[in-house]
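ok here's Sulfurtransferase:
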Amino acid sequence: MSGGNMRLVKVTERKVRSGWQEYEQRHIPNARFFDLDIARDPLTKYPNMMPHQDDFASYVGHLGINNNDHLVIYDSYGIYSSPRVWWMFRAFGHENVSVLDGGLLKWEQEGRPVESGIVEAEQTAYVSDYQEDMVIEYNDLYAETHDFLYTKQPQILDARPYKRYTGEIPERGAKRDGHITSALSIPHSQLVNPYDGTMIPREDFYKVLRYRNVDLRRPIVTMSRTGITAATINLALANIGKTDGVKLYDGSFTEWASNAKAPTTSFAEY
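and the structure:
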């Protein structure tokens, strides 16, 4: 598609609860504010679950975004929630979408302009097209993890902090601690440079994958506590050309741990 504009999209900061106020105070010129607390399924008890595609389209249209726009998603403090929104747009069929490496943090470090206030947008007729092969739900993941012939069993990559993965630190909002049995730990913090909030270089990501014995030839499922930082792994995989056979578990550990029959462990997997 041609004729679209570049649209900068500022996302909700999961580390900063007053995301809208923070956006009003300073944002990249003409950036729109994407609120993850609105773009979610309000009918589920689990946080951050994907909205229905029609609800997503209505919300995105309200932001003045067109299907042929090139979207650049960014956080205020490096990279945290922006990969989730990047992944959501892709899961709803918007292919021309990127993440601003380093977000507003690096933008301001480089002396680039910001503005305050609210950007007024004209409603558009945005259309979403749900890509079900990018998402996995609880029942399907449970079945695949019990495929003892290993014909479908995916590699599960867990983006939570390592001590939450092992259960040493209790998981917020979860009925159990630890991790999905057989899941491998790839913490979000290992994928982002602490000094400027940029993604680590590709060669360093390959080292992380090798250290955790990740086989890129096999199907991959990413997860986290509620599906936010899981998408950082999806972004890192996309940066090395791995998108086929990669799904995000939307309910993530919060949903998994609420099901008594779903196996968990605190034993570290390598």
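+1. The CA atoms of residues 62 and 123 lie 5 Å apart.
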